[in-house]
From TrEMBL:
Residues 7-63 form the HTH cro/C1-type domain. SUPFAM superfamilies: lambda repressor-like DNA-binding domains. It comes from Lysinibacillus agricola. Gene3D superfamilies: lambda repressor-like DNA-binding domains. This is Helix-turn-helix transcriptional regulator. Pfam families: HTH_26. InterPro entries: Cro/C1-type_HTH, Lambda_DNA-bd_dom_sf. The lineage of its organism: Bacteria, Bacillati, Bacillota, Bacilli, Bacillales.
Amino acid sequence: MEMRVKLKEVLEELNMTQGELVKMTGLRQAVVSELVHNQRMSLKKEHITKICEALNIKRIEDILELVEDR
């Protein structure tokens, strides 16, 4: 199994851009882009926490999911 960040879907639902999220969280653009495209090899708790706080996400499964290996 692997973990997938559902940030692209969340941003689309909120009609929000990556740039807006960068401003809200203070994260680097590269970090947000890698998370949106699921290219980040490791997740920092701090990053996920900042994103959840900025987007008012209360349930971790709203932004992360486990998927079967392909």
